[in-house]
Design a protein that fits this description.
Length: about 200
Amino acid sequence: MSSMLRNTTTRYGWAAIVLHWLIGLIFIGQFVLGWAMVRIASQRTSFELIQLHKSFGFLLLGLVLIRIGWRLGNASPGLPEEVGAMERRAAPSVHLALYAAQLVVPLSGWALVSVSVLEIPSMPFNLFVMPNLPLGVSEQAENFWIFSHKWLAYAAIALVVLHILAAFRHHFWLRDVVLVRMISPFVANRAGKPE
Ligand code: HEM
Ligand code: HEM
């Protein structure tokens, strides 16, 4: 069973699968939470939700670093042979952009709390104090990073929507293994080379 943990050239392993869905869930949850928490009238609730958003943001950043390390030290399954030339070229770029988004959205959030003139410490899940990034505190810097964090998050979600539509297209239209192999390591490329 332990071999099911790692990827091969024709299928994903448990580690990549669990990290994909855990990170995906937190990422989409962070977007919804982020959007809602700055639009809530109650200052008290808004403050609590922002602390929660920061906690999950740091958790996400940690998981993403593990995921990228795992990705670099593992085989990666190629697309099934029946996938067309256009998508064969586009998919790696979208995946690379999603990896970049998973890093820069939390990092810009971290930058924003680090330069904030409110100087509220970040305490992920009340466990410890997360140090600030070494950036100068100022109102201009805060505005810049709020703007960047917000638009990076919006751009990332646009990519995620494209990504989900592509996955559904594979499953319901092309009826290939691309979605299911991201759910179970027992599903491999039909047309792939045997392991
Ligand atoms: C370490 C990680 C993160 C930290 C510290 C953080 C921090 C913050 C803070 C303090 C705000 C409030 C900005 C304001 O005062 O208007 C905010 C807003 C927001 N964040 Fe994050 N964030 C992090 C990760 C993420 C992630 C991963 C997403 C996912 C997409 C995200 C999406 C958003 C959104 C959508 C908003 C609301 C923007 C708006 O419409 O005004 N954040 N974030
Ligand atoms: C309902 C939501 C989602 C679905 C249905 C979905 C589906 C998939 C599928 C089927 C694959 C495999 C593609 C292949 O075999 O080449 C994949 C890979 C990937 N997904 Fe998602 N995904 C979702 C959410 C997300 C989110 C929110 C993110 C990041 C913010 C994300 C990032 C990635 C990345 C980076 C890969 C490439 C993995 C690799 O091979 O290294 N996904 N996704």
